[in-house]
Queue: 2 jobs
Job 1
Amino acid sequence: MYSLYTLMYTTFTFDVNSVYSEPMNKLQSTMATARKAYHHGDLRESLLEAAETMLEEEGPTGLSLRKLGRELGVTPGAPYRHFEDKDALLAALAIEGYRRLRAELVRDLGSVDDAEQRLKLAGTGYLRFATSHPELFRLMFGWMPSRDIPELCEAGDAAFAAFDRILQDCADEGLLSRGVREAGLLAWSAVHGAAFLLIDERLELDDPKPSAECILDLMHDSIWSGIGRR
Amino acid sequence: MYSLYTLMYTTFTFDVNSVYSEPMNKLQSTMATARKAYHHGDLRESLLEAAETMLEEEGPTGLSLRKLGRELGVTPGAPYRHFEDKDALLAALAIEGYRRLRAELVRDLGSVDDAEQRLKLAGTGYLRFATSHPELFRLMFGWMPSRDIPELCEAGDAAFAAFDRILQDCADEGLLSRGVREAGLLAWSAVHGAAFLLIDERLELDDPKPSAECILDLMHDSIWSGIGRR
DNA sequence: TGTACATCAGTGAACGCGCGTTCACTGATGTAC
DNA sequence: TGTACATCAGTGAACGCGCGTTCACTGATGTAC
């Protein structure tokens, strides 16, 4: 009997940071306090990861700090060592989101010289981000509870700056038929709007879930006719 | 003393359907049961109105059935006479939203023959709706919990149909340089995206809160260059 | 015009729930000597 | 290399809250005769 418990305990120990279920945990804390890791390791990062998964899977309403704690095998108070409150965690999520949005925007730009192409690739990256993390995208643009956090604003501005930069390049090369601001308004609105329509499944195209590339193949010509000199 | 109570009661009676506060209500139900209207009159409509106000003022998280009941001077169970559950009320809100969005879209179209102008006016109506009911707009496009309600889909489709119709007019008059679908993708995305950026205050224009007309003055030329034959 | 009765739209009390957050505590970790 | 101690990151128990929802009930309304 004892060896069975030992076996169980051993298994559970390896599981403790991934999936956590009520009875297992009780077993752990009563039987094997000595061996269970008291410190989580990198709870902050794990919380953010788990939060993103939870957000994507259950939507904004399904995200709770207690549930995150449970999932990571940690008590309800633990997250408060890393985030002041729930809003702070959401903000951290959004900040990380903006960083990744920016990364996605510029991902394929390195090897391309043609500014028009760069604009198209940036748009594709934007849509790629939105479609692969729809709920995070909605959090960032929309219902983020407290938006006046400096770090959050900076991260957002950085992402938009990357977009602006490309348009400015177009302007510098004399490719635009309008001012940067007017061109930016159209280009950004179009891509942003398409992103939302796409994740809301409101676009009635042949393919019900078209890829980012596919959408930009459909849109770029129109956009460029709207703002480019061709 | 008695006359004071009477005076208070009289005042409160007239307030019962607007603002409701705990102690007042207790006074009512103990003192003046005879005179208080047992039936509300049109609770369903009042709930929807109050819900919309609450949504706009406190955001999606701030909306609760109990709070609505309190506000309307009605017990927590009362709303369930009119809506199966909270989601049903939200759906009703969104449905009504789509109707009004459609109305806003076509508002100024009657007197205008020029199809290009009609498109611009419809876009303006779209933005006007979004900016005057930002949270409702977000509910409709985004975090609506249960979206597979037939009536909801119909209302949505009807609004989009109005938009499509105008584009089809443009096509029929030979004004478009592209297929209706491609043109629609750009036009709708651009307007939709601008609406979101606008209510998120992400547009860096001279005026921090520009009017719908102002935005479309800035955008329409680009859009039309993108899809129109000019 | 008056009455009986079915239906409707409320009441009020209760249920259970999960949540965010706090706090005194304790085990683990890292650092100075 | 070993020890003392400050700091850190957890525990676990508790708090209060407001919420969605249910249910037996009752007062008001409208309708058939």
Note: Residues 33, 37-39, 64-67, 76-77, 80, 85-86 of chain A lie near DNA strand C (CB under 10 Å from a C1').
Job 2
Amino acid sequence: MYVPRITSMDTLYRPAGVEERWQRTWEEEGLYNAEPDPDRESFVIAHPPPNVTGELHMGHALQLALADALVRWKRMQGFNALFQPGYDHAGISTQNAVEKDLAREGKTRHDLGREAFEERVWEWLRLYGRTIMTQFRRMGASLDYRRERFTMDDDYVRAVMRWFVHLHGKGYIYRANRIINWCPFHETALSDLELVHQELDDELVYVRYPFVEGEGHVTIATARPATILADVAVAVHPDDERYATLVGKEVLVPYVERRVPVIADERVEIDFGTGALKVTPGHDPLDFEIGRAHKLPEPMVIGPDGRMNDGAGDLAGLTQEEASARILAWLEERGQLEKREPYRHAVALCERCESRIEPLISLQWWCSMEELKKPALDALRERRVRYHPEAQHRFAIDSLENAPDWNISRQLWWGHQLPVWYCPDGHTTVAETEPDACAECGSKELKREEDVLDTWFSSALWPFATLGWPDDTPDLRAFYPGDLNTTAREIIRLWENRMIFSGLEVMGEVPFTDVIIHSTVLAPDGRRMSKSLGTGIDPLDVIEEHGADATRYGLLKMSSTQDVRFSFGAVEEGRKLANKLWNLSRLLLQAAGEGVKPEIRPSAIEERWILARIDRVRSEVEEDFAAFRFSHAAQALYHVTFDDFCDWYAEAIKPRLYAGDADAGATALAALERLLGLLHPVMPHVTEEIWTNLPERETRLIVAPWPEPDEAYAEADSLQRVQDAAAIFRRSGVLVALEGDEKRIFDAVVRPERVQANGNAGAEIERLRKEIERAERMLANDNFVQNAAPEVVEAEREKLARYRRELDALEPSLD
RNA sequence: GGGCGGUUAGCUCAGUUGGGAGAGCGCCGGCUCGACAAGCCGGAGGUCACUGGUUCGAGCCCAGUACCGCCCACCA
């Protein structure tokens, strides 16, 4: 492949063509690939599979920037790094997209029928799906793209079936009639986690329920008058003195004139409305609980289409609004409508279509969490899996402790159909593949359950199903358990915790040891990034304008706290850094001259100094990466490049470079080499591009060894003197060389002429003198030293005295 | 309603065991010197949200208050 010489190129680094070229090259040369290798330790990140219909958004970009930096770092350190890509079929989300598409033709999925609809989804995916992996590549994400997996692949489906049968065999999966969240548009059950809540303007109506015996009534408040028809009780709080005498009496439900009891239940809020609650177990989750506790009947008046059903008698077939109007009119006539008031409250909506959720009772499949969660909780408590930051670890544990049984069935057409078959006698057969006959009666007339599984039921298997489970494959042995996962906060309960208990259940080991819960990237104005608000920023636009390296750097730089505003400044800083590196390498390559090879041959203090600085940043970056402090690492890399390498070291050696000093040239290239290595995980493209232009490159930087620790230069005598001069005394006898001061001290000691030129030598010395005097004052303060060991205090006094002598010795040389 | 995060320079934000208030961008002044003017050198600019506490000493630790925000949530 043609690689232009850097010295002949533009003074402005243009990432556009360069980045795509390297992305292609790395992939074509197989440098992203991972194969089982008994001689090397593995490092594995199973990247969260995006929706198969998805497009790259800022969350993905951040996730990739973080994870890929770690993967590249580990790869350079010699780990057998596997970064696993793939797609999630994303049941309801994909089905919704295709249904919208159908709607443009004036059709619904029912017009096609199930089989044709599924065909339509596959066809749609061929046209519009699976584009996001191209966008992942554009980020420079070093995923092993050969290993792309899809949760609807035949092998993956087999894993899902095995998982279901396994759980069923252990008795964790059962079928039950319970209240669930029903989406009337998709006509499916949804889990609590698939809802969004939105503040909507409603009306709260106060309705009188007359006593069956005697005069009077009890007034309840409701936002859904249509559900009055399904009332089976009125409930009050047991401590509510207003209603103490009412408990046990009976009242008449309006319109249907049904006699129902007044009961006491602690779940009733005394302070809301009138403090009396109409109990409708068929259409409200709280009422359902109360109903079951009191063994009340569970009539339903609203059907799966959201309209009044046959249970609603003469109102059957009406919409809820129509039914409400009829009921309110009925109440009005009889003086049972006490008042109506505007009411703004949070309403549950389907997160995909924003239809109002209908709570209703439905026969669904459930997965008991009771036993499954135990080993996962142990793992979390023993910190065999750690969420970062720490607050999210506590949240993960709390969530799992309180995880209710999991509704795993969905009445959708796109997804994994449950491996359950029914015979005409109502027997149930559960099997991985279609059975020949009913397991109980041998009937050949089997009909498969129509429901599909919750998308997350299959995603939970991602870390091992992508490696071949349920088969015992070399990949599975080599790459399970993995190391790390990165995700957004709201995914903890949906996915992360479920991968942990699934991994423990079938593999016996946690799927990873660390979970990074990354920042939420908000729009620059602090609002949420969203298409509907128009606040979204397309990462691909940012990449196009500034480059993937700059985008990666910027995202890392800005990802410090839980919520961060997108900062173009941070991206521009990254672009500046790339440009700076580019021009630095032009300088060094030109000035070092032809034939000079990178080699450490330091002869001057500034050379030992820059090597020591680079080595210190190496260890800093290692600590930062290991602790997932990406923002800090980015900052350290920026400063060592700009301030230390370019502004100081490069300026200092320029005269020697131009004079043809081969040692200076060789050392400078060697120092640059190390710097490029440190920067590669964050800015892979520009560093690889420069690396290629260095003489005698045998390997790509992506697989070059991470710079080794280099104690020799860190301990150089002259450097030590610089450090000592900058050291100040801090509490408990800790001596610290102040980072920021070091350069200025270096100035004072090594390049006094420059300091004097700026007229600051006196000021620097004055600063140092003040530091020392402050330390002396502290040492003289009895309150300060009382808790310190006497020998420590004495040692510090001696050090301080030495610094004062050094300072005094330094001063004359600067005059 | 619950959980969590934030509040430091005009803007976006660092500040890792308590002792120097910082960076990038913007602004002002100088440099038109052979990597980069998308550069270099220098400078101005801050009651570290507020109140109280601990301490010789608090941006940092403790208690509380206010505001902003994210996630979650069954007050009908």
Note: The mean pLDDT of chain A is 85.
